[in-house]
Amino acid sequence: MIRVVLPAHLRTLARVAGEVELRVEGPATQRSVLDALEASYPMLRGTIRDHVTQQRRPFLRFFACEEDLSHESPDAPLPDAVASGKEPLIIIGAIAGG
Questions:
Q1: Separation between Cα atoms, residue 14 and residue 45, nearest integer Å
Q2: Phi/psi of residue 62, nearest 5 degrees
Q3: What is the C-alpha to C-alpha distance for residues 82 and 87, in angstroms, rounded to an integer?
């Protein structure tokens, strides 16, 4: 099981209270986790990545094991601790403004 922590606004949209647990077929990558997340919670389609380009939305960041994975390839393997469920993949809404 892969654990995903969503920002508050996406938890509300998906109607979940805490972490989301997902079964991912094949290697654990950002793409495979987001595919599984959107399959389980269709209301999240287009909120984390663009419908057409499948690129990460500008004000969202991905973290795992104290590392920023936001600029990694979507097909790069996630850290072993995430793939095993020991650590979550964290999706954070960036804060902008001045």
A1: 10
A2: -115, 130
A3: 5
Structure tokens at 75: 């097909």
Model pLDDT for residues 19-62, shown as the tens digit of each residue: 999 999 899 999 999 999 999 999 999 999 998 998 998 889 99
Residue entry with tokens 């508050």: 8
Both structure tokens of 10: 């996406």
Secondary structure class of 68 (helix, strand, coil): strand
Rounded Cα–Cα distance for residues 70 and 67 (Å): 9
What is this structure's pTM?
0.91
The SS3 call for residue 25 is: coil
What's the N-to-C CA distance of the chain in angstroms? 39
Give CA–CA dist 26/57, Å, rounded: 24
Sign of torsion over alpha carbons 17, 62, 4, 66: negative
